[in-house]
Protein: PhzF family phenazine biosynthesis protein
Organism: Flavobacterium endoglycinae
Amino acid sequence: MSLPFYIVDVFADRKYAGNQLAVFLDAQNLSSEEMQQMAREINFAESTFITKLDRENNKAEIRIFTPSQEMQFAGHPIIGTSWVIINKIFDNPPAEIKLEVPIGPIAVHQSQGLIWLKAAQPKFWDIFSKQDITTFSNLTVSDFENQFPVQEVTTGSAFVMVGLSSKRALENLVLDKDKTDDWLKKNCKTNHRGLYFYYLEGSKIFSRMLCVEHNQLVEDAATGSASTCLQAFLLKYHKPEIELTNYQGDYINRPSEIYFKGKLTNDQFDIQIGGKAQFVAKGDWEAY
């Protein structure tokens, strides 16, 4: 069985930057195990599988896999898959589409070369002491910013938000893999566990997402789902309306730009993230 696929770089203003994504079409006959094997084979941070395409209503159903597990929601796969559907699959590119993922429908639109998604309402979970983070990192107490808590937040995938006091602390960050994995397993509420370190500087955020997969410490180039969590976090604790750019991936040579546009009104979060996608390749995959 041969499946067409695309490769795009997401949250990138040029090729070979941002976060890589493989998008597989016509995947409705694949089993979950086969999708997981293919995601592991290509070994990008995530791969997506389009299992249903409704051209009349501009809708699609997709599944998202990392090399190790299926995701309920992830930002860069939704942005990248939407770009492929709008610009490469539909004959008459629509301005808006909806992608159905396990957490529900996600509204997506394209404007001035950017793909924007609107995230689900966030949930704010446990708050942790900054001392906790020092037990598995090279950070000292002075490396943390003092305005916001360290807290796990989810908009479909959960991340622990960790604010730092300087770009230097972010750049020099080192984690102990085994101690990090142990802390995440003991403290995070879901099987998806990640740390999102950030430094806020005016209208810019510099960030790094680290997690443990397949017994390896992994750093992500651009994490849309973590960005929606961070945007919710800043709307709650920083100010109720924000518009800024999140720079991620600089320390692994995959510079990424994730645009934030959010508002908090009467306890309702309007969380939007946007980014560009760059077409890299297309081909056919021999699934079996």
In short: Residues 46 and 65 are 5 Å apart (CA to CA). The chain has a mean pLDDT of 96. The radius of gyration is 18 Å. The longest strand covers residues 204-213.
